[in-house]
Amino acid sequence: LDLGCGTGRLLNRLAQEFPNLRGTGVDLSTKMLAQARQQNQHRQRIIYRKGNAEFLPFADREFEAVFNTISFLHYLNPQQVFSEVSRVLRPKGHYYLVDYTVRQGKKSLPISPNRIRFYSRQQREEFGQVAGLSCLGHHHLLGPVVLSIFEKP
Question: Which CATH number does the domain housing residue 32 bear?
Answer without folding.
Answer: 3.40.50.150
